[in-house]
Amino acid sequence: MEQQEFVTVINCMDGRVQEPVIQWMKDRYNAKYVDSVTEAGPNKVLLSNNQNKIDSILERVRVSTDKHGSTVLAIAGHYDCAGHAVDGELKKARIRESIELISTWGLDVEIIGLYVNDQWQVEVVDGRARPLQAKAQ
């Protein structure tokens, strides 16, 4: 797989989920860098009626896609989120709803959903993620 310079993730600000998601994105997409747009409970923010916050997220994502050339965008949620305290199944449903919203933004990117479980392992919520391939040597 050809190395990508940048990929992007809309992730929770919770430090416990940063490293697992960054490492997963680097491994899955053979990426050199992961641009992170963080919010407390990003799925809750995206699905709110707060257009200013949604526009802020989109503006930051566009820096990654337009200036860094990112072609992959993940929306993540996680277990034990203080910013969006709902059970895992509802969180996964909200991740899917967030993917639907993001798909209306007109970005030329692959959009995937990720959930970090209680073992701090990354699970794919949306089945559109590419299969893991070996890194180029």
From TrEMBL:
Classification via SUPFAM superfamilies: beta-carbonic anhydrase, cab
Signal peptide (residue range): none
Name under which the protein is recorded: Carbonic anhydrase
GO MF entries: carbonate dehydratase activity; zinc ion binding
Stretches of the chain forming a coiled coil according to its record: none
InterPro entries per the UniProt record, alphabetical: Carbonic_anhydrase_sf, Pro_CA_2
Taxonomic source organism: Edaphobacillus lindanitolerans
Gene3D superfamilies with a match to the protein in the record: Carbonic anhydrase
